[in-house]
Design a protein that fits this description.
The chain has helices spanning about 15-25, 45-55, 75-90, 105-115, 165-170, 185-190, 220, 225-230; strands at about 5-10, 35-40, 60-65, 90-95, 100, 120-130, 150, 160, 195-205. The chain is α/β, with parallel strands linked by helices and about 240 residues long. The longest helix has 15 residues, at about 75-90. The two termini are about 30 Å apart. The model has no long low-confidence stretch (mean pLDDT about 90).
């Protein structure tokens, strides 16, 4: 790995997103890196706020409305665009979702950790709540705080690094365009190809679950309505 490409996909939820962006921009990173925010059809007001933040802070902003007319979510397009650029630059690809706040050492720590681990495809930071307690989607990591371990099922892309070797081995053009989210599929493909995925429970990041997709809070508050929306409207296909 010669460098690090960091990305955050976002649709609205602008205040949380700006916290995410500030934390990334304030990270202690020694490796050459670039940070791109992919704006997935946010409102005109929120797009303007992102453009202002880009000018002030210096991150790259890609407005997907300039690239495609496909309605949000466009996570697949973001992954495909980012994969192509990362391979060309021999860069690791590090996804920081817009409901996550990293610590100053998180991104460099994942980069260094991925280099140290044999056949690493995905290096994922464990997620915690405001009190530092491990939360969704890593509830299964409770009891492993402070450790690094190989994950046999799948990693979430809340804050995850994908190595160049894996990016070259699995073409994201092969992903199912009928789905909305791809962390499960990509994690399983990595294992199928003989790679290893690791959870870094020693690099916790603050995660506000579904902060960027408020309707998904129904999963906990009104599960019947959540699953009705999921299946009748074809939302949240994993």
């Amino acid at each position: 790995m010669k460098q690090l490409h960091i990305l955050t996909p976002v649709k609205d939820s602008i205040d949380l997103t700006l916290e995410t962006i500030h934390a990334v921009m304030e990270s202690d990173i020694t490796v050459p890196h670039r940070y791109t925010v992919y704006n997935d059809f946010s409102t005109a007001e929120n797009t303007a706020r992102l453009q202002e933040a880009s000018s002030q802070l210096g991150f790259r902003l890609v407005n997907l409305a300039d690239v495609t007319d496909h309605p949000s979510p466009n996570y697949l397009l973001v992954l495909q665009m980012a994969q192509r650029e990362a391979i060309e630059a021999d860069a690791a690809l590090l996804i920081v979702e817009s409901d996550v706040v990293v610590k100053k050492n998180t991104l460099q720590g994942l980069y260094d950790g991925a280099l140290e681990k044999e056949k690493c495809a995905i290096a994922a930071a464990v997620t915690v709540d405001a009190t530092g307690t491990i939360n969704y989607p890593y509830l299964h990591a409770k009891g492993k705080e402070g450790t690094v371990y190989a994950e046999k099922k799948h990693c979430s892309f809340c804050c995850s690094l994908l190595t160049p070797d894996f990016l070259r081995a699995f073409d994201f053009q092969r992903l199912d365009a009928g789905k909305n989210w791809f962390d499960v599929t990509i994690s399983h493909e990595a294992l199928t190809l003989g790679f290893c995925n690791y959870v870094f429970a020693n690099l916790p990041v603050w995660h506000r679950p579904h902060g960027s997709r408020p309707w998904k809070q129904l999963k906990y508050k009104n599960p019947l309505k959540y699953y009705w929306l999921k299946y009748t409207k074809g939302l949240d296909k994993i």
